[in-house]
Design brief:
Residues 33-64 are annotated as: Disordered. The chain is of the alpha/beta class. It has helices spanning 16-28, 64-68, 76-86, 101-115, 120-129, 132-140, 152-172, 189-202, 220-228, 241-247, 290-293, 296-308; strands spanning 9-11, 177-183, 210-217, 265-269, 281-285, 310-317, 331-333, 340-343. Helices cover 38% and strands 12% of the residues. It is globular, with a radius of gyration of 22 Å. The two termini are 20 Å apart. The structure holds S-adenosylmethionine.
Length: 346
């Protein structure tokens, strides 16, 4: 398990130069490894059509603020239409972006400006003409919101019930390692939460056990931030206070995670649609990525592959607002209404 067991680029969090290597790869390799947000943009002069020229309503255009943001080449509606058209081609579902589209639309707007394109229609034409632009759009569509201890009730049930039961059973078999995977780990908030929970919440009760944690994400820029391990205080607000004080001892607005909480985590750059670590895992966190943004057929494919990477009785955690696709995937609920499932079919 871990870096050796999986295809993809591995970053050890304590190794800043490795993080830089991932970043450099993302800039030079192209394809899914490309991170256009870190690519210098060509600044074009605005070639906006006059207001209303697109024939669509004008939300967000025409007011004073809009004069300041005159260079914004897309209305919200144009962006929505672009996403509705493009998402299926990326095996994504537009509905997942509905509530969080602001972040994505802003990025696409910046991309249009960088390319000197006047509107969403011109961007569609660019996509049709240049297949490599789809990789750029794909990367622009990644929603990056995360925080420590997100969905606190899930971490509480893991800490008090589900993981102690798993550790008891490991111990009874003479095993000492809990293997876990955070899929779509953003800047490390989720895997580091698990690392802190394990060390401060579980190790004192189960001395001698260890956590081996793989964390994967498609986005090299986020993985570089994860490797750095420093966060605005707002990202820590749900973490139990005593743990936050232990894990982030430094002063300032952007404290850094203490080294002992980083050691358990191996970061991998992988696209969940095509790559996964081998496993098997006792615990997989796949929250606010596949079951929000992926198209239903892809959700089913990914779910089958996730389940195949769980040990018998292994746990799958999804996001608080997500549900699993219909069908028998060999899972049962493991924590009442909370989005935690256990593998049953083995
Ligand atoms: C909304 S964040 C969720 C982060 C964390 N799991 C949580 O719930 O707080 C979604 C993450 O999934 C990543 N992501 C999106 N598409 C992906 C893909 N195809 N493969 C791997 N990671 C992906 C994004 O880069 C982003 O970091």
């Amino acid at each position: 398990m871990g870096s050796g067991a999986a295809a993809g680029v591995c970053v050890q969090p304590a190794d800043a130069s490795a993080a830089e290597r991932v970043r450099a790869l993302s800039l030079f390799k192209g394809g899914f490894l490309r991170d256009p947000r870190t690519t210098p943009e060509r600044h074009a002069t605005s070639r906006l059509p006059p207001p209303g020229a697109s024939g669509l309503p004008l939300p967000g255009r025409g007011g004073r603020a809009d004069i300041q943001e005159e260079a914004d080449p897309m209305t919200d509606r144009e962006c929505v239409e672009l996403l509705q058209w493009a998402a299926p081609r990326l095996r994504l579902r537009w509905e997942g972006f509905r509530r969080v589209r602001g972040q994505v639309c802003k990025r696409i707007g910046r991309r249009l400006k960088a390319l000197g394109l006047p509107d969403a229609g011109a961007y569609r034409a660019r996509l049709e003409a240049e297949p490599s632009e789809w990789d750029v759009l794909d990367a622009l569509c990644r929603v990056t919101i995360s925080r420590f201890y997100r969905d606190a009730r899930v971490f509480e049930v893991l800490r008090h019930d589900l993981l102690p039961a798993r550790l008891e059973s490991l111990r009874s078999r003479g095993e000492a390692t809990l293997r876990a995977w955070s899929a779509g780990c953003a800047s490390g908030e989720e895997p580091y939460t698990l690392s802190v929970l394990f060390q401060l919440g579980l190790e004192p009760r189960f001395p001698g056990v260890r956590l081996a944690l793989v964390a994967s994400d498609a986005d090299a820029g986020l993985l570089a931030r994860a490797a750095r391990g420093c966060y605005p205080r707002g990202a820590l607000r749900e973490l139990p206070r005593a743990w936050a004080e232990r894990a982030f001892p430094g002063p300032g607005d952007e404290p850094c995670l203490a080294p002992e909480f980083r050691r358990a985590v191996d970061f991998l750059q992988q696209d969940l649609r095509s790559q996964m670590p081998d496993g098997p895992f006792h615990l997989v966190l796949c929250r606010n990525v596949a079951f929000t943004y992926f198209a239903p057929p892809l959700q089913r494919e990914v779910l089958s592959r996730l389940v195949a990477r769980l040990v018998p009785g292994g746990l799958l955690v999804i996001g608080g607002h997500e549900s699993l696709p219909e069908g028998d995937f060999g899972l049962t609920r493991a924590a009442g209404p909370l989005p935690v499932f256990a593998r049953t079919d083995v």
